[in-house]
Amino acid sequence: MTRTRKPGVSRRATLAMMGAGAVTFATPWVARAQAKTIKVGMPTILSGRVAQLGTSSRNAVVLEVEKVNAAGGLAGRQIEMVIRDSKGQPQEAARVARELVNTDGCEILIDAEASSGAFAVHEVARDLGVLCIHTNSETSSLTADPKQHIPNAFRTARQGVHDSIVGGSYAAAIAKAKGLKKWATCSPDYAYGRDTTGEYVTYLKRFAPDVEIISESWPKLFQPDYTEVVTKILQAKPQALYSCLWGGDLTSYIDQANIYALFSQMEVFAVNMADYTALTVVKNLPKGIHSGNRYIKTYPATTENAAWGDAYKAKYNEYPTNWSWENATAIMLLAEASKKANSADGKKIAEALRGLKIKSPFGADGTVTMRAEDQTLVGYAIGWGTTIPQEPYVPQVQAGDWKTIFELEAEWKKSKGYA
Amino acid sequence: MTELPADQGAQALDVPQPHVKTRRNRDVLIALAAFVVLALLPMVFSSKFLLDFVIRCAAYGLFATSLNLLIGYTGLTSFGHGMFFGLGAYGFGLMMQKTGVSVPVAFVATLAITFVTALVIGAICVRLKEIYFAFVTLAFQMLIHSTILSWVSLTGGDQGLRGGIPRPPFWGIDLSNHLHLYVTSCALLVIGLFLMHQIAQSPFGYTLRMIRDNATRASFIGIDVWRAKLTIFVLAALFASTGGVIMALFVSGAYPEFAYWTISGEGIFINMLGGVTTFLGPMVGTVLLLILNDTVTRLTEYHGLVLGIVILFFAIGLRKGLMDFVIEWYAQRRDRRGK
């Protein structure tokens, strides 16, 4: 007797497929149990207008991880980075972060998200208890606000309030010396722009009380045309201008303001100028723009820093960004903390990270410290200088004083009700 | 959008009256079965990824299906439906953070806020037709989005609601436990879909289809078109808002992106993928989009390109959503067999 096969999917095949499906879902758990490598997950922005944030963060992380792996990894376990795009959407950042931990078996998160995405990942870290290092969010409240505090989250980025204190005191000194009393501001219209400008003005007025703000402009983020902003500032005739525009916005602004010869009519303070993303893109970089250092390989003026910048350039054919050093620092700290704890366990690394001081090319005195009380980076190089149109772009950088920063930061925390 | 010829509605217009009760009982049974299956999934698969996936399906599924009540059933292509998703997330998040009420109270209050907002916005919007309706809804969406951005003291501006959403346990349910959150999301999804299906199958649902096919004829036989449109606009907003609540619980926060036009765009995209002529089309679309999104972003950062090609395939190749295609193919096959 012959059996005829009915067309379609047989019961056996269906069962096999269901089994395969179950295995697919269950695999990550098996994989995790047997892992010799340690997976580090990294949600970041790799597409859209600020894709450069993600790519330059990723580059720096890959560069550092190669070194750590060559030196034996984290307590003998090789690091495997799992880097994924969040498209700059907080809900995607949260989803990707959860997926990295729950499905891919990542034991540590490097959160290279900007603004709201970082807060979304912070909640994932709170929920899952996984060790998480924020590398790109400079919003002070992320670590300063005790309500945000969780023992497993750290930050290796600059902080808005540090920048404002140093920027304000630097500008005040020049304002006094040159008699700059009438000031204008021009910053992007979102939380970073508003907060940073507000804090900067607060400290500027604190150090130079007779300064007066006579004009404020708030162009939209990613605005293509700045003509009205430029003419508004020129009509107000200020003696000095502050701006925290960044990246493409800053370069478009400078290119357009150059047409009106704005830079010859006032002193300009642009905190985000001294970053290669802006310095190398501007068509005619005006001489004498005051800027905070973001990342330049000539400040700190050490061989370590220059070597790091050159190694990055050699590998990726472009200079690192502000985000690059912040992410590189995260890996350096992880490696040191793991060595100190002699473990790759997240909890033990977190314990070792608190108060950890490491040698760093990006330190003001050759070291950076993960401050124990609020788990954020301090002691990094921070200073201001003026631009010249060619390399090294900002030849002289005047260092900010960390003692003053600590004093005023403590005061600021009190005023915000954080301390 | 997919054109809907008058003779090819969401369901053929067989007069359904005599079997209302049996059909409702059947729906209840299906809903219960679906809930039991979903609730038992974690026992079979221990994957947390699956739980996350289903929770997100619940959020987007409720949102997209409610949008289909407007697009597919009433012919109102709203470009601003995402505002209610955002409103749900922010309303619930703020209520939990600022007032300290229990979860069910915050949920009901969020629905109440959505109800009032949708009533006001709807009253203005549904007077308009087609492209004008689409653009006025989009304008209101941008208004709400801008309000969220600029009202920093309340909403946290572009940083969103920070510090997590507190979720005190209620009725033995602890939403900070992921499994409880999963089961609650499934329950909200199933109840939401069940209610929306009842709306779609009710005489009111058939009135909507009539308005879609010929609003003038509907008003000539005595239907208050404006009132019917407004009612469905508000009802759809409530379900979208519920989706927002689930999303807020999932990410433990609320972000301006939830009220941005891209969320509305995703809703329309989901409806195009799944199809607007069947009730479950948007749900299928949601699952498809999320699977696509999750797998493609794993593999490449050029996901925009991949998703673009997929939508081109659906828009130009199939010229309809997946469920529409499947239903048509099935009908053709049945007809051929019949011969």
TrEMBL record, chain A:
Annotated signal sequence range: 1-22
Key words, A-Z: Amino-acid transport, Signal, Transport
Any matching Pfam family: Peripla_BP_6
Domain of life: Bacteria
GO biological process terms, semicolon-separated: amino acid transport
Domain annotation Leucine-binding protein: ranges: 37-378
Listed InterPro entries: BCAA_transport, Leu-bd, Leu_Ile_Val-bd, Peripla_BP_I, TAT_signal
SUPFAM superfamilies linked: Periplasmic binding protein-like I (SSF53822)
PANTHER family: ABC TRANSPORTER SUBSTRATE-BINDING PROTEIN (PTHR30483:SF37), LEUCINE-SPECIFIC-BINDING PROTEIN (PTHR30483)
Family affiliation: Belongs to the leucine-binding protein family.
The name this protein goes by in its record: ABC transporter substrate-binding protein
Native source organism of the sequence: Bradyrhizobium lablabi
TrEMBL record, chain B:
Membrane-spanning intervals of the chain: 28-47, 53-71, 102-124, 131-152, 179-200, 230-255, 267-292, 304-322
GO molecular function ontology, one term from the record: branched-chain amino acid transmembrane transporter activity
Protein name, entry field: ABC transporter permease
Main subcellular location: membrane
Membrane topology summary: Multi-pass membrane protein
Pfam families: BPD_transp_2
Location of this chain's protein in the cell: Cell membrane
Keyword tags: Cell membrane, Membrane, Transmembrane, Transmembrane helix
Signal peptide interval: none
InterPro entries, per database record: ABC_transp_permease, LivM-like
A single GO cellular-component term on record: plasma membrane
CDD domains named in the record: TM_PBP1_LivM_like (cd06581)
